[in-house]
Amino acid sequence: MKDLLAQFNKAFESKARLSIMSVLLVNESLSFNALKELLQLTDGNLATHLRALEEAGYLLISKQFVGRKPNTTYTATEAGRQAFADHLNSLESFIKGLG
């Protein structure tokens, strides 16, 4: 059981990060405001979790202007997709091991 627990990715331990990655895997990319609204997180909370995922290499950030307003969008990287899939597989193995 310790081996299964060791396979969990600490980057995805928080509900917010798990939610961010889940949403970005089913959407090509989303804006900060769309993520904030969808996940019901505050600006600061969302920004903190996005920064942690970016530093881990799991997100790509694109900044541009739409009209005169800045627009930041987030996309899961291939490394992020793989790390998230590995994490989910570890969770599934852990759950099945308990059954």
Automatic annotation (TrEMBL):
Natural source organism: Arsenicibacter rosenii
PANTHER family from the UniProt entry: BSL7504 PROTEIN (PTHR37318)
Segments forming domain Winged helix DNA-binding: 17-95
Record field: transmembrane: none
SUPFAM superfamilies reported for this sequence: Winged helix' DNA-binding domain (SSF46785)
InterPro entries: ArsR-like_HTH, WH-like_DNA-bd_sf, WH_DNA-bd_dom, WH_DNA-bd_sf
GO BP terms: regulation of DNA-templated transcription
Record-given protein name: Transcriptional regulator
